[in-house]
Specification:
Low-confidence stretches of chain A: none
Strand content of chain A: 15-25%
Distance between the termini of chain A: 45 Å
CATH superfamily of the largest domain in chain A: Winged helix-like DNA-binding domain superfamily/Winged helix DNA-binding domain
Number of strands of chain A: 5
Mean pLDDT of chain A: 91
Largest sheet of chain A: 3 strands, mixed
Oligomer: homodimer
DNA sequence: CTTTGTGCAAATTCTTTGCACCAAA
DNA sequence: TTTGGTGCAAAGAATTTGCACAAAG
């Protein structure tokens, strides 16, 4: 709770009840939640919460670099409050997103054409079938 | 043209006028076009073309593995007919998507939790500012 | 006070669906 | 004729926008 508050301040984000709740939610739920999931869960505790605020807040968080917005899903954006290096895996059947270890260094290539590019984020995504769904598809 | 036709057949896709045109478009335009871009450009040559057909067709292509669907963009899906290993870079300012070289091997990790996962596709995405936009932001 | 955040409703945009028509085997 | 592809219009779903109100300093 205080950790989340400090984390927001460190990232140049003014804490509010809503922002704190959303940040804490992301820190506690490593499930790459969607806007809807966050909204539905937090609405129980904060009945006045609006989905617009969830959208606004997540946008600010991502812009300030406090969280990562994941585009691995075709339909909607997902969010990740986790700050350690890892890759993602989305199951093409059940659509769940998993964290998976990243054992190698992902470096931005120093090619001629891209040497003036300013790289901010690097993402590694895998798509396939998770252990559960791979079993069923047999 | 014949190449595209053969390519479709090899991937188990029955060629039609529309499908051929879309496949050729993707092979000729390495710009990771969106549905709208494909539709607008091809409408000139095929005035009866419908956006639904573009959607249908791209979906089939991606399912059969003939093309790659890219989720690097927050708003819409992009498509890539290129079949060699490479990574992508999206400019956060101008939103263009670039191909960038992939100099290292991206392997699926053999961790305990993911050992039964069946990996189908691996994507490496970068986000940042392209040379043009990095210059402007100075 | 003044600035900034919140939340409702409406609008926008991308994508999918239902269904009728068309084309090829 | 039967199967599968195409295309229109409508529906659906995620996200954004405009604006009024509330909160914090």
């Amino acid at each position: 709770m205080d950790t989340a508050k400090q984390y927001l301040i460190n990232n140049g984000i003014k804490p509010s009840v809503q922002r704190l709740a959303i940040m804490m939610y992301l820190l506690e739920h490593r499930t790459h939640p969607t806007v809807d999931e966050i909204f539905n869960d937090l609405s129980k505790a904060i009945p006045t919460l609006s989905k617009t605020t969830v959208y606004n807040t997540l946008k600010i968080f991502a812009e300030k670099g406090a969280i990562l917005s994941l585009t691995i899903d075709e339909k909607m954006v997902r969010f990740d409050g986790y700050n350690q290096r890892h890759a993602h895996f989305r199951c093409l059947n059940c659509n769940k997103v998993f964290d998976i270890p990243l054992n190698y260094d992902v470096e931005f290539p120093k090619a001629e054409e891209t040497k003036d590019f300013q790289n901010i984020e690097t993402h590694v995504y895998h798509r396939g079938y998770c252990s559960e769904c791979a079993k069923e598809n047999k």
